[in-house]
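Hi R.,

As promised on Friday, here is the backbone we talked about, encoded as C-alpha cells. Could you run it through your design pipeline when you get a chance and send me back a sequence?
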C-alpha cells in the first residue's frame, strides 16, 4: 500500500469514527429528555431558614414556579406585593408544615428512580406520537394542596403529597382510601396521566354523559400504563379500553389519544 492510499484509508477511518462519536448519544444526552428540576430544595431552604439568597434564587431561577405556587396554589396574594415574601415565609412556620418539609426533603433526597421512570415513559410516548411535547417537570412543597400541578408546558410535583399512605400526619386529614395513592410509586403515573389529560382534553365535557367521561379517563390511564410499561391503573374502564384495542389492532396510540367520539366504540 502506497502512502497516498494509506492516507486516504486513515482519513476515512478518522471520519467514520468521528461520525460514530457524534451520532451515538451518550448517557447524559439520553437523560436530558426529561429530568425533575429540584425547585423544592431552594424553596425548603428559604422556608426553614429564611435565607434571603434562597429567596433570590427562587425569584431569579424559578420565577414561573414561584408565581404559580404563591398566587395559584397557596393563594397568598400576588408576587408583586411588597409583603408577599414575609407572608409566604410566615405561612409555612406552622410546626406541622415544618415537619412535612423536613420529611419530604429526607424522603426525596434522591429522585434518580423517578427520573429514570419519567425518561422511559416519555421516550415511549415520543416514539408513538410524533412531535409529542416534553414538559418541564419540577418538584415543590405545597402545604398538602394539589398533588400534580399542570401549567403551560410544565408539570409540578408536590412532594408533600407523596410521603406514604402510612405517614402519620396524613391520618389527621385524609381517610384510608385517599391515602392509598399518596405514595412514591404514584408520582410517575400521576404525572403522565394528568399531563395527557391536559394535552388531550375531552371536547364538550359538560355535555357528555358520565359514561363517556369515564371512558375518556380510562383511556388516559390505559395510555399511561402503556407508557410506564406496567398495569398500574386497573379500573373497569381501563379494561374496556384494553378490549377495544385488542379488537382494533391497527389503531395507534396517537389515534386513540385524539379520539373524542366514543359512541361507536362498542365497549
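Update: got your reply. Pasting your designed sequence below so it's all in one thread:
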Amino acid at each position: 500500500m502506497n502512502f497516498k492510499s494509506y492516507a486516504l484509508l486513515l482519513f476515512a477511518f478518522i471520519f467514520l469514527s468521528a461520525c460514530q462519536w457524534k451520532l451515538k448519544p451518550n448517557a447524559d444526552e439520553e437523560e436530558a429528555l426529561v429530568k425533575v428540576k429540584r425547585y423544592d430544595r431552594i424553596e425548603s431552604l428559604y422556608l426553614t431558614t429564611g435565607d434571603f439568597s434562597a429567596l433570590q434564587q427562587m425569584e431569579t431561577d424559578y420565577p414561573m414556579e414561584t408565581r404559580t405556587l404563591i398566587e395559584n396554589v397557596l393563594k397568598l396574594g400576588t408576587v408583586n406585593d411588597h409583603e408577599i415574601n414575609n407572608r409566604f415565609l410566615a405561612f409555612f412556620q406552622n410546626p406541622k408544615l415544618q415537619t412535612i418539609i423536613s420529611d419530604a426533603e429526607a424522603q426525596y433526597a434522591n429522585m434518580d428512580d423517578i427520573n429514570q421512570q419519567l425518561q422511559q415513559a416519555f421516550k415511549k410516548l415520543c416514539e408513538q406520537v410524533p412531535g409529542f411535547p416534553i414538559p418541564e417537570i419540577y418538584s415543590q412543597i405545597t402545604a398538602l394542596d394539589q398533588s400534580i400541578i399542570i401549567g403551560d408546558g410544565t408539570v409540578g410535583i408536590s412532594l408533600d403529597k407523596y410521603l406514604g399512605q402510612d405517614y402519620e400526619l396524613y391520618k389527621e386529614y385524609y381517610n384510608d382510601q385517599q391515602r392509598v395513592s399518596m405514595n412514591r410509586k404514584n408520582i410517575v403515573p400521576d404525572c403522565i396521566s394528568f399531563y395527557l389529560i391536559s394535552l388531550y382534553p375531552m371536547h364538550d365535557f359538560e355535555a357528555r354523559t358520565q359514561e363517556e367521561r369515564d371512558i375518556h379517563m380510562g383511556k388516559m390511564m390505559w395510555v399511561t400504563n402503556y407508557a410506564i410499561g406496567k398495569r398500574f391503573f386497573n379500573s373497569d374502564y381501563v379494561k374496556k379500553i384494553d378490549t377495544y384495542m385488542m379488537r382494533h389492532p391497527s389503531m395507534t396510540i396517537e389515534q386513540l389519544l385524539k379520539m373524542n367520539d366514543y359512541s361507536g366504540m362498542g365497549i
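One thing I noticed while checking it: The first helix runs from residue 3 to 23.

Thanks again,
M.
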